[in-house]
């Protein structure tokens, strides 16, 4: 199967972490997201151990929690002793609910409000990843009012095109994120930051994009960042402590995509960085990375119940399910690839070609096109695989559809709810 935590049992049913998905769907109803907890822990350990081994002490992963933000994942991040990247006060609040140590948290975002900055400082955020000088002024002011010196790193745009979907490409010069090296504005920003009393510039950040399978854009970005660090040392005598290379490693959603060996990727990037650092004579920075997708995507699948099957003779076939863009907007937004299978009859011949549609009043509410599976009957269970990243975190209540329940399976094979299914009362709780 696509990932080693997926299998098919003697009943011809799809299993995740050894548990029969059809039985789970019967027990909890659908739509249902099922997380294999050991897979998240395994991914976290791969990053943590590889970064320590290859980049040295002090280097560690920050889980980019925008991929899946809920108490349960911050609990796992805390237990696995990794850091987090957060982008809003809401994510920060959720992490705080689990008592997450915010000294290992980096607060991102291209428009942090005064509230966000105040909230972060009040709760002891380790670092802000500064996107522009307007917010730097506010951080400096609020830190001054509170009598502290706030750690920051500056987000730079190295000018790299990672050749991924335009909506998830972020490192180019004209990006809305960060400050461009190429235009000279980065150096102005560094000088300006160093003139401030209440902030401490600890390093630099870049993030080139997401769902990238090639190592070259990462090495190119690292090279440009190091070149820039060397230039700063020469020009203004500033040496950095931290180099944060962002996230972006690709995940296998469909059979034709490779399953990346993240440990090997980190080894190759470290080799490259170590050589560049040695040749340039700068102090070796602590390296941070921010994997989001590759930490959680392959830990999860979504289960739906099939409703109607429509055959439009001479045109196409539709299979409609009881979820769709409210729980997974990624196909509607980015035409994202997914593997879809009929969980109830895994090894039956896949002789029915169809478009899998969601239940919203919207033609674009599709989960995938050109899917081949056994012709499903109403009531059978259909699964979309690899839905752990940017699915629940991007879910909505469009058409007043409640968000699904999220279930986890632990290493003993026990199932437990980690996010309750929304009720109709939840849907109206803020309506006055
Ligand atoms: N660091 C920063 C600053 C980021 O902006 C992101 C993702 C990450 C790390 C994590 O990247 P990852 O390892 O997950 O590729 N909603 C889109 C993805 C948006 C990514 C936004 N930033 C999707 O569903 O594909």
Provide the fold topology.
Blueprint: E1 6-8, E2 14-16, E3 19-20, H1 21-28, E4 32-36, H2 37-55, E5 60-64, H3 71-79, E6 83-86, H4 89-97, E7 105-107, H5 114-122, E8 127-130, H6 133-146, E9 150-157, E10 179-180, H7 185-194, E11 199-205, H8 216-236, E12 242-244, H9 262-280, E13 286-289, H10 293-296, E14 300-311, E15 317-321, H11 330-334, E16 340-342, E17 352-357, E18 366-373, E19 381-385, E20 405-409, E21 415-419, H12 424-428
Parallel strand pairs: 4-20, 5-6, 5-13, 6-7, 7-8, 8-9, 9-10, 9-11, 11-12, 12-13, 15-17
Antiparallel strand pairs: 1-2, 2-3, 4-14, 14-15, 14-19, 16-19, 17-18, 20-21
Helix pairs in contact: 2-9, 5-6, 8-9
Bound molecules: ligand LLP.
The site of ligand LLP has 20 residues, from helix 10 and helix 11.
Kindly describe this structure.
There is one protein chain. Helix content is 31%, strand content 24%. Strands 4, 14, 15, 16, 17, 18, 19, 20 and 21 form a nine-stranded mixed beta sheet that branches. Strands 5-6-7-8-9-11-12-13 form an eight-stranded parallel beta barrel, surrounded by six helices. The protein is α/β, with parallel strands linked by helices and 432 residues long. It has helices at 21-28, 37-55, 71-79, 89-97, 114-122, 133-146, 185-194, 216-236, 262-280, 293-296, 330-334, 424-428; strands spanning 6-8, 14-16, 19-20, 32-36, 60-64, 83-86, 105-107, 127-130, 150-157, 179-180, 199-205, 242-244, 286-289, 300-311, 317-321, 340-342, 352-357, 366-373, 381-385, 405-409, 415-419. It folds into two domains: 6-36 and 297-428, Lyase, Ornithine Decarboxylase, Chain A, domain 1 (Beta Barrel); 108-291, Alanine racemase (TIM Barrel, Alpha-Beta Barrel). A hairpin with an 8-residue loop joins strand 17 (352-357) and strand 18 (366-373). It binds ligand LLP.
